[in-house]
Amino acid sequence: MRKLLYAVLVGLVGAGIVHILVLMMVPELSERDAWSRLAMASDLYRMTPLEAETGGQPVVKSVDPLFLAAACRFDLTDGMIQVRTPGKAPFWSVSVYDRNGHNIYSFNDHSATNATLDMVALTPAQMLEVRRQLPADLDGSIFVETPIAEGIVVVRAFVPDESWRPAVSRFLQQSSCELKEL
């Protein structure tokens, strides 16, 4: 009976220590989300490569070595954003995430006119304004109406083999994330 009581007591003390250590680690781990890492790497409305360009630490580690990616943080309370890239890539996709990393909307080059990336993210209220009078520079854009104010747009491009890497890198470097006021 004494051995059982001793084992239970040691187990409870061990569980308490682990619990306290986990609670102490929460602030450290919670500051490492994608929003925080992008905030440390660049400002709002700026496309940032997610891979390290000079051998340093990547902003967010890629799970697929055949894709390169760039991301842009935005705040729609300032206005809508337009994400564009003048070039082409073998395949690209765009995802809009909320600040917590939940996917709000995704599409790829098959949904775009001439496989050209031209996307506008805006709130429902901003969409009503745009519908009243569509600006000429937004003609042909894909409109993504989001229920969020702050988020991240991620552009991913496929690298079929190493010979494509410079062209795909250039595609992502030419991408822009511009704030558009109504």
Secondary-structure map:
Layout: H1 2-30, H2 34-41, E1 48-49, E2 67-75, E3 80-85, E4 92-98, E5 103-108, E6 117-122, H3 124-132, E7 142-145, E8 150-158, H4 165-173, E9 176-180
Parallel strand pairs: 6-7
Antiparallel strand pairs: 1-2, 2-8, 3-6, 3-9, 4-5, 4-8
Structure description:
With 182 residues, the protein is of the alpha+beta class. It contains four helices and nine strands. A hairpin with a 4-residue loop joins strand 4 (92-98) and strand 5. The mean pLDDT is 87.
Give a short synopsis of this structure.
The chain is α+β, with helices and mostly antiparallel strands and 182 residues long. Helices cover 30% and strands 30% of the residues. α3 links the parallel β6 (117-122) and β7 (142-145).
Mind summarizing the main beta sheet?
A: 5 strands, antiparallel
Shape from CA axes? elongated
Radius of gyration: 22 Å
The number of strands is 9
Give helix and strand order, one letter per element, not per position.
Answer: HHEEEEEEHEEHE
Instruction: List unreliable stretches of 5+ residues.
Output: none
How far is it from the N-terminal to the C-terminal residue, by CA? Answer: 76 Å
Question: Strand arrangement, largest sheet?
Answer: 1-2-8-4-5
Number of helices: 4
Helix-residue proportion: 25-40%
Mean pLDDT, all residues: 87
Secondary structural class: alpha+beta
Strand percentage, roughly? 25-35%
